Amino acid sequence: MRKHPELLVAECTESQLRQYTDAAAAYRHYLDALKEAAEVRGSMYWRTSKGKRYLIRTSATGAQHSLGPDSTENRTIHERFVDRKERAELTLRARKDKLEEMRKLNRVFQVGRTPTIVLDLLSALHGAGIAEQFLVVGTHAMYAYESACGVRVDGGALATRDLDLLFDTRQRLSFVTTMARRHESLIGVLRKADSSFRVLDEQKQTAVNADGFEVDIIRRQARDEDPHPLAMSDDEEDFWAVQVDSGNRLVSSRPFRQMVVDTRGRMALMHTIHPLDFAAVKERLGVSPSREAIKAPKDLLQASVARHLWDAYLRHTHGPALGAEQAADRGDASPASG
After folding, report:
1. Pairwise CA distance, residues 276 & 303, whole Å
2. CA–CA gap between residue 105 and residue 202 (Å, rounded)
3. DSSP-derived 3-state class of residue 57
4. 15-40 pLDDT tens trace
5. Ranges assigned E (strand) in the chain
6. Which residues pair with 166 in a beta bridge?
7. What is the pLDDT of residue 317?
8. Which of 53, 194, 205, 229 lies 20 to 30 Å from 93, alpha-carbon distance?
């Protein structure tokens, strides 16, 4: 017998809701400061050559180029850069201090439930500048939905030991460019979260760490200019993304971004899909003849919970749902509540 979704959801306390709101604001301010600091990475200084002074710009990677000889304009550029860099660094330090304060309070009020390893992986993707090229599309997306609603979903609907990351092949050029600039592989990025991650020889789309936690890299069915097969880098130890039947539907879903908090109080931004799109995909999986019998009931349970969260908590704050006609055009199940 399937449980009613409302019986699987418990609302957070007022103190938890208030703390999450304060922490989310602090995290947004931190991301703004991080972006500002990134824009003034490197340095700018004067170099004298053959009796003339030149303004030199150095990038974060050490590359240098001249902005020309000493002039009123270049002196102004230099002064503005130095001033902006100093202000950006001061602001970032202050925002980091505030974020640490919020982390401690998150832990005191038990705000976070997202598994620590998931938070570590999201932070690693963000640090590498590739977070927006991946979507969390499996069970762990439920942590974003419950965070947005200010509730706790019953653990039975959340239990899993793997993280499904959908690689958006439409953004492959941006991904490849970023990774080439950083001289990194995708498995190398994940190892910043946990150095024990290794890609399986027999399942190149899957990496597992020493604790048995798995990360699966999936993609849509190859189309247009999509490469196939798709190696995530030239590193022989790296992932090969695997095609999944629901990939096209997932990659065309509406984006949903939400700050999640782990059990230590740390924060990260999760990129996932709209809860109604999540529900539609899970419903299709749950009734598919090819779906493993042991997984189908959980698919349907998660779909019903996601729809309940939308109807009860998110409908009025996240805009109208996708219309039935639009859903039919995309081949999705109707998002109307059942």
Report:
1. 8
2. 44
3. strand
4. 999 999 999 999 999 999 999 999 89
5. 9-11, 43-49, 52-58, 64-69, 134-136, 151-153, 162-167, 198-199, 206-208, 214-219, 230-231, 240-243, 255-261, 267-273
6. 135, 218
7. 77
8. 194
